[in-house]
C-alpha cells in the first residue's frame, strides 16, 4: 500500500496512464490483477460437488442467512454509520453508502482462502450475491440515497440513477471470466490428467498467483489514487471511520452469532468475510459515472478498498487466532462441505 501511494504521488502521469486503459468504466490494470487473483482460487472449487451441496438443507439455511445479512442488514448498517459519522459531508456520505450497497464478488475469495474458509461454499455465496447484485443495486441506490433520508427530514440526493448495465458489466468481468476459466480448467485437466494429478501438481503451481495478483492489485489501486490520498488526507481519515465501523460490525456480527450456534469454523469464516467484503469496483464505477472522477462521492468510493484491504487482512489474522484460542464445539451436520 505504501509503495503504491509513493508511486502514485511521485511518478508523473500515473493516473492519466491508468485512465487511458479502460474497458467501459472498468480499469484494465485493476481488472487484470483481480482476474489473476481470483483464477487460482476458482480453480480449487470442486464444481462437481456443488449439485450435492445444493440438495443439503443446512446449506440452504446458510444461504438464507447470508442473503439476509448482505441485503438487509448490510445496507442498513452502512447507511446508519455513514449518517452518524459524516452528517456534515453529504458527498462523502453518499460515496460511503454506495460502497455498502455493492456486495462482495472478488476479494472475499482471497480473504476466505487465507483464513481457512470453505472454498466451495464461498463460491456458491459469491455467485448468488452476484445475481442479486444485478437485480438490487440500482433500486437499492435509489432507496438508500434518494428516498430514505427524506423520511427523516434530511435533504436527499436525486442525482443517482444507477442503471443495470454497469452492475452487470462489473459482475461479468470480475466474476464471470475467472469463474468460467476456473470451471473449464478443472473440467478439462481433470478429464485429461485425472483429479490426483490436478490436485497434486496443477493446483500447487497455480496457487501462488492468487497472492501475487492480490499484491499487484493493491499496488495498482493505491498508485492510481496516490495524489487523492495525500491531497485529501483529512477526508481520508473522516471516511475511514464509518468504513472501519462497518467492516467490524459486519464481520463480527455473523462470526459470534454463528459460533454460538455451533456452526463449523470454515462456514463461520465464509459467512463473516462474505458479509464484511464489498464490490468496490462497482461502487467506484457507478460513483465516477454519476458524479465524475473528481467528485467527493468518487473519492469516498475509492477509499472503500483502501480501508477494506488492511482491515480485512487484520481480520484474517484475528480469524486464525480465534480458530486456535476459541473452543469450536460443532453440532452434527450432514453438509458435506463441513
From TrEMBL:
Gene Ontology CC entries for this record: plasma membrane
Membrane topology listed for this record: Multi-pass membrane protein
Predominant localisation class: membrane
GO biological process: response to arsenic-containing substance
Keywords, comma-separated and alphabetical: Arsenical resistance, Cell membrane, Membrane, Transmembrane, Transmembrane helix, Transport
Similarity comment text for this entry: Belongs to the arsenical resistance-3 (ACR3) (TC 2.A.59) family.
Protein name: Arsenical-resistance protein ACR3
